[in-house]
Amino acid sequence: MKQFAGKIAVVTGGASGMGRELVKQLAAAGAHVATCDLSETEMKESRELALDLAPSARITTHLCDVSDEAGLEAFRDEVLDQHQTDHIHLLFNNAGISGGGSFIEASREAWERCFDICWGGVYLGTRVFLPLLIAAPEAHLINTSSVNGFWASLGPERPHTAYSAAKFAVKGFTEALITDLAVHAPHVGVSLVMPGHIGTGIVANSVRHGADSIDEDTANMLELAAEMFRENAPMTASEAATIILDGVRENHWRILVGEDAAAIDAAVRAEPEMAYEGDAFVNVLRRAGGKDEFEPGTGSIL
């Protein structure tokens, strides 16, 4: 799919971050977009920003929890009605949160909330919308995994189990779909997106939409952490969305987003036994990234 003009795209998690930027850039490229999220106010902002770029685009917003199959089915039905269609051309299973870092210490509710959105949202989103992709003359499915879909770590002292498990599942599922679609629906392309550290609001959204209740002091601390995560990122959400859409146009099944993602991928492939060896893995990363020095706290693994 070399161009998006006139195409109908569905984007989950379109209220902020990469989802918002995908909505904007798809609209600017001539697509009509339906997006869902849990914040009606922020989705309205995404819609207005998209319409500023493409006043004639049809942009619809839909409240939906992607971990809920009935909610996704209602979202699908609204898309069919509001876009007056029986098919879509693009599906971006983008929604995600973090949380449930430790399988041992985190609450089961927080762990399963993260897993159900990051994995369940992709699985159920594909279940619900894939028939509409197959019904189109040409179509493309895009599932967002992460560097944590091939490296289950944020460092030696930070457990990261729920998110990593979900993103590994997304990676395996999407790769398996390459053959399944080639056999049963060869006109439907598929891409696996694996971002590194991108300047999004995922940390803040995880606090708002996760399962754990927190006190005011903790909320303030996490708000500061969320701001630092976004501000220290080596790549903006807008830059990431551009890379993703270019990858779809070029029909790449594997889209690494960011120099840090490329370096981690190369390092894990080169020396997999070292991947969880803490400081020793930093040296592997440094070599993979072609860097002479590793500077912690810079917002980049490089």
What does this structure look like?
There is one protein chain. With 302 residues, the chain is of the alpha/beta class. The protein has two domains: 8-257, NAD(P)-binding Rossmann-like Domain (Rossmann fold, 3-Layer(aba) Sandwich), CATH 3.40.50.720; 262-302, no CATH class. The protein is 50% helix and 14% strand. It has ten helices and nine strands. It has helices at residues 17-28, 40-53, 69-82, 108-134, 161-184, 202-209, 216-231, 237-249, 259-270, 279-288; strands at residues 8-12, 32-37, 59-63, 90-93, 139-144, 188-195, 198-199, 235-236, 254-257. The strands form two sheets. It has a seven-stranded parallel β-sheet with strand order 3-2-1-4-5-6-9, sandwiched between helices. A two-stranded parallel ribbon has the order 7-8. Helix 4 (108-134) links the parallel strand 4 (90-93) and strand 5 (139-144). The chain starts with 7 loop residues before the first strand and ends in a 14-residue tail after the last helix.
